[in-house]
Amino acid sequence: MTIQFQALPTEDVRSLQRGGPDAYGHTPERRISDGDGMPCRHCLKNIAAGDTYLVLAYRPFPNLQPYAETGPIFLHADECERAGEAGTLPEILGSPDYIVRGYGRDDRIVYGSGGVIATDAIAARAETLFERDDIAYVHVRSARNNCYQCRIERA
């Protein structure tokens, strides 16, 4: 089986970059990157020191429901190119480990699917999760802060 790491949709990101409201209805905050740990969820690259970035609340789910986690993410403030869907780890995944968790077609956590996984084992863990019929997609989240990083789909 092959998998694809997916960045945020460009249409959603452009709206936020133009000052559109985040998941809480607020205008994204603008900051200057110090170059340390500012991963853009659109290009899936780290935001370079001196570049302007946005901090905003993001909910990677289509509807409000008890499992629709909302949390902070970073985006380049200026337009960047969306990362292509690829089976290789995105640049932003530079920590030693991440939470990898499966979700069902109802956008709810599939219990027993989540775990803190070493970064170099994320792809293999996603492939194992996709062997299950009840897993529709997988999230990669920060193991320290639970921040959404990217989505993994079956290719």
Describe the structure.
This is DUF1203 domain-containing protein. Pfam families: DUF1203. The protein has two helices and eight strands; from the N terminus they run βαβββββαββ. The protein has 155 residues and is mainly beta. The chain has two domains: 9-76, first zn-finger domain of poly(adp-ribose) polymerase-1; 97-154, no CATH class. A five-stranded antiparallel β-sheet has the order 1-8-7-5-6, covered by helices on one side. The longest helix is centred in the N-terminal third of the chain and has 8 residues, at 10-17. The chain is globular, with a radius of gyration of 15 Å. The relative contact order is 0.23. The model has no long low-confidence stretch (mean pLDDT 97).
Per CATH, the architecture of the largest domain is 2-Layer Sandwich
Radius of gyration: 15 Å
Percentage of helical residues? Answer: 10-25%
Assembly context of the chains: single chain
Q: How many DSSP-defined strands? A: 8
Mean pLDDT: 97
Overall shape: globular
Q: What structural category do the secondary elements indicate?
A: mainly beta
The third-level CATH topology of the largest domain is: first zn-finger domain of poly(adp-ribose) polymerase-1
Short description:
The chain is mainly β and 155 residues long. It has helices at residues 10-17, 122-129, and strands spanning 3-6, 29-32, 52-58, 71-76, 97-103, 115-118, 137-142, 148-154.
Notable features of this structure?
single chain; 155 residues; mainly beta; first zn-finger domain of poly(adp-ribose) polymerase-1; 3-stranded antiparallel sheet; 2 helices; 10% helix; globular
